[in-house]
Amino acid sequence: MPALAHRHRHRVVMIVVLILGGLLLSMYWAGRLAEQRVWLERSQEAGGQLELYAQAIHTQVERFRSVPALLALDSDIRDLLENPDDAQLRHRLNHRLEQQNQAAGSSVLYLIDLNGETLAASNWSEWSSFVGSNYGFRPYFQDALAQDTGRYFAVGVTTGIPGYFLSSSVKNAAGQTLGVLVVKLELEDMQREWINQPGILLITDALDIVILSNRPAWRFRHLQPLSEEVRHSLVAARRYAEQTLQPLHSKPLQRVAENSERRQVDGPDGRQTYFWQRLPLPEENWTLHLLQEPQQVAASIRSYRLAAAGVWMTLAFLLLYLAQRRKTRRVEQRSRNQLERLVEERTRELQTAQDGLVHAARMAALGQMSAALAHEINQPLTALRMQLASQRLLLDSGRSEAVREGLAQVEGLIERMAALTSHLKTFARKNPAGLPQRVRLDDVVEQALQLLGPRIRNENVAIVRQIPGEAWVSGDAIRLEQVLINLLNNALDAMHDSPVRELRILCREEAGTWRLSVADSGGGIAREHLDQVFEPFFTTKPVGQGLGLGLAVSYGILRDLGGSLAVRNDAQGAVFELTLPAAEKPRTDNSRSDA
Ligand code: ADP
Prior knowledge:
This protein has helices at 2-65, 67-71, 75-82, 87-104, 139-147, 188-194, 228-237, 295-396, 400-428, 441-458, 477-495, 550-560; strands at residues 108-113, 118-121, 149-155, 162-171, 177-185, 200-204, 210-213, 221-222, 246-247, 249-257, 260-267, 270-281, 286-292, 437-440, 462-466, 472-475, 502-510, 513-519, 564-569, 574-581. With 595 residues, it is α+β, with helices and mostly antiparallel strands. Among the domains are: 67-186, Beta-Lactamase (2-Layer Sandwich), CATH 3.30.450.20; 352-432, no CATH class; 433-581, 2-Layer Sandwich (Heat Shock Protein 90), CATH 3.30.565.10. Strands 7-6-13-12-11-10 form a six-stranded antiparallel beta sheet. Strands 2-1-5-4-3 form a five-stranded antiparallel beta sheet, with helices on both faces. The protein binds adenosine-5'-diphosphate. GO terms for molecular function: ATP binding; phosphorelay sensor kinase activity.
């Protein structure tokens, strides 16, 4: 059917689309999941790395934090601030600061008075000596005056070397501020150590300007746009000295966690996407940044996607297989049910057909018989009429004894006719196969012979009949009688032209059954017909005389009664053998069959 094929194709296309759709979806979803996981892992890793850097910076700065505060307690320092013109004291302090700077490992150690003038410095003897320079404009100086301490990252005005300046105010016994002591740390060494580390490390100050980096090209770039005002203040403080500040443009692509995201960066090496991790350093007011190239992530995502695709396909095919199996089972079950229904229907149809046949055959036999019966009944009727006439004469002459005798004969004739008609009535009834009855075979044969009596006498047929009185079978008297009438009729037909006409009806017991044989002297059945005689509509008789149903119906009846019917030939003619299950004989054996 084209519609069905169309629907089938439609379904196949749907399933394929579904599988492919699911495949894409699962791959996409796995990719997303993998991305999230991988990024999170990366973020944790980068966070750990940044912690290490932060630790290093912290240790470095912490070592020097207390240095200026401790030195501020030195009485020579206070003396010099109170007497700035004491050349001897100044000389001594220069030496002292030089020694202490060396011992502490800091870059420069120096003392500034309230005007910002440098009075003494550890580098007093070098070309870059701070002595005499004024640093009053530096925020670390101003912060120390205002709040006792200051810290500030800047590029050295004198040296041009960037450094971290830690300052502390110097006070006299009365608590008055006399000046400021400063220690400068150059973080260049630390920065140099980081050069070989993977990824790009940036350290930005509060203004988001990169003050340190393991990639020199990235230094002194500002991550945020700088307002004119800020630029101005930077120039005033000479914070980055002569360094030009360039912007570092970037735009966010995807946020991964609080301090990590993917950003597209227009860096010194060109445009590139980085995985960008931040770690704030609140004490210094700095922020550490780690920028990594996100390559390996793609490989992880691919393997996640492949795994998801594999799982999805396995699942899809498993589902398909299960669905197919269920369908096959359903179809099988349906066709089995259909078959069962069909068989039941056919059986019922056959049963009704057979019942119909039985009835039709019976009616046909009845038709045949009624002609013979009319003839048979006519005879006693004529006899009766004559008897009655002679009775009247006898009555007139007063011979009552002779009348009584005559009446008995009349009674006999009437009884015979009654038997004939009553039997005919039961025979014509359409009898559904009821419960098996107990039937005496001799009675059944007797009835059948009586019905065929006229023909037997007309055709001068000799009957040999040997049936034991105790031959009780389980069956149905009327239907058995129909079988016998069929067999006897056939036998009479066969012997119609025979010189010898002899019917032998014999019965013997055999293994729980009774076997009744009806043999004739009609010459038997042609060998090639022996297999066919039980087939419906098989007949060798001229049209109008035989329907070919008698034996088929008889065969069916015996099978229904739990017996069988067989045929063979003997020297004289055909022999039909009926086998019927034996029934227990009733205790009062003088009764006739139950029927
Ligand atoms: P019908 O008698 O209407 O032909 P039956 O089924 O009773 O149908 O018989 C079928 C055929 O079997 C008969 O036509 C006949 O050829 C054959 N047949 C039956 N009984 C005998 C018999 N006793 N002797 C010879 N042939 C017989």
